[in-house]
Amino acid sequence: MSVREVQQKIDTMILHLGGYWKPLSGLARLLEEVGEVGGALRREAQDELKEELLDVLVISTCLANQYAIALQQPVAEGSESKEKLYFQIVEEAGEVARILNAYEGDKKLKPNRKGQSLQQHIERLQRAVMSLGASYQLNLFDSLFALIEEKSARDFGRFDHTPDPITETSVRTYLSHQPGRYWGGVPVKSFERFDRYIEREQHVERFYRIAAIEGLDGFVIQQRRDGLIGIENPFVKDGFTVAIEDYGTETFLIIRPAK
């Protein structure tokens, strides 16, 4: 089973359950599960350890999906002790927290940490998880699909729908025409000015902040016949451009990082 299949399966599960958590809420869940891995290690509870490691894989994959990250296949490495592997899990979870705090919270990245992407640290976290599992002869990837099916059945209707730029209809529709790493905006209102839409669509500012670091290709806004006005000379942040793309009867405005 490939990591791409896992990402798609988890995305389907999340949509079935109502949508992704807000990133900082997802981060809190990730750190909770990392702590529970430590508890299982301390108690030497191998079945519990497997469950908690799987939860770390699922939640970290959710975070990757929210930033349109195409993860590399995590491969177990057997050179470190179990203790050091857990320390690595904790360290990488902390790095994920540091970056998400800069993306979504109030803390800015330190100058010497800029350029380090969320993708790098999620992949390192998952490699450490796989390695720790392998040290206990746990084949975690083979157990993921069963866990996803269980969560889909158990948690259906448990969570409220949470809007997210990776699940908006605009981006899902656009991706049926063009592949890539995109976020999408909320539906436009009738005769809404472009500048007012940008003010209302809070995720655009997030996109400006992280697009270059995470390699996002663009932010998708789906136009409608009586939709956005004032798009002849749309204003966007320096370093970004706007293009209009038509696919049959569907029209999209794409904000892209300037080349």
Rounded to the nearest angstrom, the radius of gyration is 20 Å
Low-confidence blocks of residues: none
| Element pattern in H and E | HHHHHHHEHHEEE
Number of extended strands: 4
Largest beta-sheet details? 4 strands, mixed
Strand composition percent: 5-15%
Number of discrete helical segments: 9
Q: What's the average pLDDT? A: 89
Query: Kindly, what is the distance between the CA atoms of the first and last residues, rounded to a whole number of angstroms?
Result: 35 Å
Helix proportion: 40-55%
The count of domains is 2
Q: What's the overall geometry?
A: elongated
Strand order of the largest sheet: 1-2-4-3
Class computed from helices, strands and strand pairing: alpha+beta
Organism: Exiguobacterium sp. (strain ATCC BAA-1283 / AT1b)
Protein name: MazG nucleotide pyrophosphohydrolase
Domain NTP pyrophosphohydrolase MazG-like: 24-73
InterPro entries: MazG-like_dom, MazG-related_YpjD, YpjD/YvdC
